[in-house]
Amino acid sequence: AVIDHASRQDGLEELYLNVTIGNLRAELLYRRCGFEPRFVDSRYMKIGDKYHDVLWMGYTLHPFEGEGKSR
Questions:
Q1: Of 39, 42, 40, 34, whose CA–CA distance to 59 is shortest?
Q2: Separation of alpha carbons 14 and 49, rounded Å
Q3: Cα Rg for the chain, rounded, in angstroms?
């Protein structure tokens, strides 16, 4: 529902989310929905005394037109 709604928004090209490294079930769910890994953000959050890395994932709604041009 969220992806469908987002795809109807004029000018919106991509969606992003992050998942804590090690949360494989969530990562696989997002992959099944079409999200792809983009990059890892080390020490993104701290819970108690422990830092956690996150994997940023993206979903392309509308491919960028004008390959080779800067955004």
A1: 34
A2: 34
A3: 15
